[in-house]
Design brief:
The chain is 28% helix and 23% strand. The chain has seven helices and twelve strands. The model has no long low-confidence stretch (mean pLDDT 96). Bound molecules: cytidine-5'-triphosphate and ligand LQXTBERG. Cytidine-5'-triphosphate (CTP) binds at residues 16-23, 30-31, 60, 84-88, 91, 110-112, 213, 215. Belongs to the IspD/TarI cytidylyltransferase family. IspD subfamily.
């Protein structure tokens, strides 16, 4: 039987957590690396489970760590754990396949964005509930952005007013996400990209600074400063 949180919730959250964390450096799968003494995945799932609309959480774990992740999360929240795949997109597809009938809003949220707050899950879900087929949280780009050639020579300056940095959780009507993954040809770095390829509009909502992706050691140091005291 699939684990459930709020039985009246209309949201399932998929948590891809099967990545190696190569850019973070040696130390095991990234989702299991410690932030303030707890694995990133525990921080992420605790915040997902605190969002009132969430009924179901499915985690895609490193295949060799499925039992360990089940054990780790047993005291955090009711969670279904499946083995992830070789690419993020495959991990999301495997988690999606494990969502039981019921939730019609699906959010996809990187374990690596371990400090995304519960209200961000609610705001993305609310926009989907209001009729948007696909919703992404974004932040403005604050740096000047240059396009460069292979030799590092600048080709031009990009108009940053039209650019946004994209976060997770990304939210979708269930049928939209299922069709996007079923029709996927080639791997993309986010799920909204698959939906865009189907010609379906993707809507932006305000992102959150705490939803930063922990990719490199510097990001882990920043995240440590953001932990509640
Ligand atoms: N095969 C994979 C690869 C990535 N992910 C997940 O997708 C999210 C975003 O990926 P990223 O932050 O790039 O993580 P890694 O792939 O682990 O990082 P790296 O590229 O440095 O190895 C992470 O929560 C990661 O665990 C996944 O579930 N399955
Ligand atoms: C989904 C994502 O977090 C949105 O910013 C990002 O695209 C993941 O990319 P990565 O290449 O797996 O780091």
């Amino acid at each position: 039987m699939t684990a459930q949180l709020n039985p009246r919730g209309d949201v399932a959250v998929l948590v891809p957590a099967a990545g190696a964390g190569v850019r973070l450096g040696p130390g095991g799968p990234k989702a299991l690396r410690l932030l303030g003494g707890e694995p990133l995945l525990v921080h992420a799932v605790r915040r997902v489970a605190a969002a009132p609309s969430v009924r179901t959480i499915v985690v895609a774990a490193p295949p060799s760590e499925v039992a360990a992740v089940r054990h780790l999360l047993a005291s955090v929240a009711a969670v279904t754990v499946v083995a992830g795949g070789a690419e993020r997109q495959e991990s999301v597809a495997l988690a999606l396949a494990a969502v039981p009938a019921g939730p019609e809003i699906i959010l996809v949220h990187d374990a690596a964005r371990a400090l995304a707050p519960p209200e961000l899950f609610e705001s993305v879900a609310a926009a989907v509930r209001a009729g948007r087929p696909a919703v992404i949280p974004v932040l403005p780009v604050v740096d000047t952005v240059k396009e460069v050639d292979a030799g590092g020579v600048v080709l031009g300056t990009v108009d940053r007013s039209a650019l946004r940095a994209v976060q997770t959780p990304q939210g979708f009507q269930r049928a939209v996400l299922a069709a996007a993954h079923a029709g996927a040809a080639g791997a993309l770095t986010d799920d909204a990209g698959l939906v865009e390829k189907q010609g379906i509009p993707v809507t932006c909502v305000d992102g959150h600074e705490h939803a930063l992706k922990i990719t490199r050691p510097f990001d882990l140091a920043v995240a440590t400063l953001l932990l509640p005291s």
